[in-house]
Design brief:
By secondary structure, the protein is of the alpha/beta class. It has a single domain (5-471), classed as Ribokinase (UDP-N-acetylmuramoyl-L-alanine:D-glutamate ligase, 3-Layer(aba) Sandwich), CATH 3.40.1190. It has 18 helices and 18 strands. The two termini are 25 Å apart. Mean pLDDT is 81; it is low at 1-69 and 467-476. One of its GO terms (molecular function) is kinase activity.
């Protein structure tokens, strides 16, 4: 499936105080589910409406029929939870480290809604937007409140062509305080040295933000069943209970949906958290088809400093694991499978802001996985998307555009740290094929190391974008 030119229609402005419109553009399709007399599930232009007031027996029959009748997976990726609004503010200094002082700091910030020009879609919205811009069909599953922030998220995702499936538990809603129903806000604080601090109400509660959700609705199950990939990350545990997240993974496995999981910084705290959190983390690591981690996160979960050996250890522990991807920032990334290892140095880029790079990196990994691309091509594309995001300011609507990605792929500007890669590949690596993306024009192989030229990879990737003017500019 080639990448679609219409993905270029997603506008992306440079980040700044005047970048975002301050008025909400209302749309009937963005009305919160709490205001509807029917729940509407929309996918590929088809809407299924289920009345709220059906009796339990009739409703369950109708839901069972819907789930049985859907056999085609016509959505490429669904993200689970972690839908939030980032409030990006410049501050003279980052918030204090103590919990009490941080909470007081956040409450002062929250006293009145900041100007809308500082709002941005965050969390899994970053992954969803990056995926949509690559031409992937995308659904965002999660909870957003029936207030201005929730309407903002509906608006942004709708404009990017992303469906939203509300993760409602109406029994839980009836028994919950109004504050626990509100859209999750994440304060992204940037100091004069461009260091980032993050805080949200989830940081100050022992329970997930939406702890009142107890089970998957029929609409959520249908969305999972219709998707080729279900993506979850560690921040989902800030929203949803471990048991609910586990039920989503188990259902995905049952209906043949591949599971991608990125534990992120939460992986370390989950590994020493409650017994329920530890169990859920272990299940995610064992049952996921694809794991994505930074080298630090891989070391934290395995105790192994070498990123290739750490990835191989995670692969061995997995029951269904096919790929383990280790992200190494400016040095590049590694993909470990049972038969081979791919290594791709990063691209040289004018880095402005790294927020959202890891989130957007997921999208091309999904693309490569479902389209069975060569693994080194998949990594090159992911590195290009991550670099394009880093060249912008902030995440959300500022993640990589297709134009920036193609510009980077045409540049052939790899940032190869020869000393690092030579040292890494010579240390304690099992005797399996290693594919290395290289600036060298010619392909070559010595022992288990196979060099693949970036020229070859770029010439295979760019035609998928279906822009003849770009294909003509591939390096000759």
């Amino acid at each position: 499936m080639p990448l679609q030119p219409q993905a270029l229609k997603s506008p992306i402005a440079s980040y700044g105080p005047s970048s975002f419109h301050s008025t909400y553009r209302g749309s009937p399709s963005l009305i919160s589910p709490f205001n509807r007399s029917h729940y509407v599930f929309a996918c590929k232009g088809v809407e299924i409406a289920v009345p709220k007031l059906l009796s339990t027996s009739i409703a369950s029959i109708k839901h069972d029929w819907k789930l049985r009748s859907v056999g085609i997976k016509d959505v490429d990726v669904a993200t689970l939870g972690n839908l939030c609004v980032d409030i990006v503010l410049n501050v003279p200094k980052l918030p204090p480290s103590s919990v009490e002082e941080r909470k007081a700091f956040m409450e002062r910030l929250s006293a009145s809604p900041p100007d809308k020009k500082y709002w941005e879609a965050g969390g899994n919205c970053n992954t969803a937007i990056a995926a949509a811009r690559l031409g992937l069909g995308c659904t965002a599953i999660g909870h957003v409140g029936n207030e201005i922030y929730g309407q903002f998220l509906f608006d942004v995702l709708h404009d990017e062509g992303i469906n939203i499936v509300e993760m409602s538990d109406h029994v839980g809603i009836a028994n919950s305080s109004s504050s626990s129903l509100e859209t999750l806000l994440c304060w992204v604080l940037v100091d004069p040295l461009q260091r980032h601090g993050f805080c949200s109400r989830a940081d100050f509660s022992k329970e997930p933000a939406f702890h009142w959700m107890k089970k998957l609705s029929a609409e959520v199950k249908l969305a999972i069943k219709k998707s080729k990939v279900l993506f979850c990350n560690g921040y989902g545990f800030d929203d949803l209970s471990p048991s609910l997240l586990l039920s989503a993974v188990e259902y995905a496995v049952e209906v043949g949906t591949s599971v991608f999981f990125d534990p992120g910084p939460r992986g370390k705290s989950l590994s020493i958290g409650t017994l329920e959190e530890q169990k859920a983390l272990n299940q995610f690591l064992r049952m996921s088809d694809v794991l994505l981690l930074t080298s630090d996160e891989a070391e934290s979960l395995t105790g192994i400093g070498n990123p290739i050996l750490a990835g191989q250890e995670l692969l061995k522990r997995g029951i269904r694991t096919k790929w383990v991807i280790v992200k190494m920032g400016p040095r590049g990334s590694i993909l470990i499978s049972k038969s081979s290892i791919a290594c791709a140095p990063a691209f040289k880029a004018n880095v402005i802001d790294t927020v959202g790079c890891g989130d957007s990196f997921v999208a091309p990994i999904v693309y490569g996985f479902i389209h069975k691309m060569p693994i080194v091509n998949t990594l090159a594309m992911a590195n290009a998307v991550g670099a394009a995001t880093a060249m912008g300011c902030g995440a959300g609507r500022n993640v990589a555009t297709l134009e920036k990605v193609t510009d980077i792929l045409r540049s052939s500007n790899l940032n190869v740290d020869d000393e690092f890669w030579t040292d890494l590949l010579e240390k304690n690596v099992d005797a399996q094929e290693i594919i290395f993306l290289s600036n060298d024009v010619a392909n070559g192989k010595s022992n288990h190391l196979k060099h693949v030229s970036f020229h070859k990879v770029a010439s295979e990737l760019l035609p998928q974008f279906k822009f003849p003017q770009l294909e003509e500019k591939v390096l000759s």
